[in-house]
Amino acid sequence: MDAGLIGASVTVLFFLLFIAIVWWAYHKDNREKYEEAANLPFQEDNTSADRRHA
User: Fold this and answer.
1) Mind listing the pLDDT tens digit for each residue in 11-43?
2) Is residue 5 included in any domain, yes or no?
3) Which are the contacts of 47, defined by CB distance < 8 A and separation ≥ 6?
4) 7 lies in a domain?
5) Is the residue at 38 inside a domain?
6) In sequence order, what are the residues at sequence separation of 6 or more whose Cβ sits closer than 8 angstroms to the Cβ of residue 30?
7) How many domains does the chain have?
8) Reduced to 3 states, what is the DSSP secondary structure of residue 5?
9) Which of 13, 42, 40, 17 is closest to 25 using CA atoms?
10) Coil, helix or strand for 54?
């Protein structure tokens, strides 16, 4: 095997890995999980607010 074949193989492997990650990230089954995670900063934590006023 020469360096050109190895380099091309690695490039194709990483491209397929990239496509798999993009497919996984945008898959419709993950949408609800990501929307819930995106709204976490906006949820109020009543327990920490109670500790500050006590």
Assistant:
1) 999 999 999 999 998 888 888 888 899 999 999
2) no
3) none
4) no
5) yes
6) 24
7) 1
8) helix
9) 17
10) coil
Can you tell me which residue has the tokens 């993950």? 30
- Contact predicate 45/39, CB 8 Å: no
Conformation bin of residue 27: beta by default, left when phi > 0, alpha when psi is -120 to 50: beta
What range defines the domain where residue 47 resides?
18-54
* Amino acid letter, residue 13: L
Quote the CA–CA distance of 35 and 51 in Å, as a whole number.
29
Q: What does the chain come to in residues?
A: 54
Query: Pick the residue with more confidence: 1 or 37?
Result: 37
Where does the pLDDT of residue 1 fall: very low under 50, low under 70, confident under 90, or very high at 90 and above? confident
**Is residue 12, in this structure, part of any structural domain at all?**
no
Using only the alpha carbons of the chain, give its radius of gyration.
22
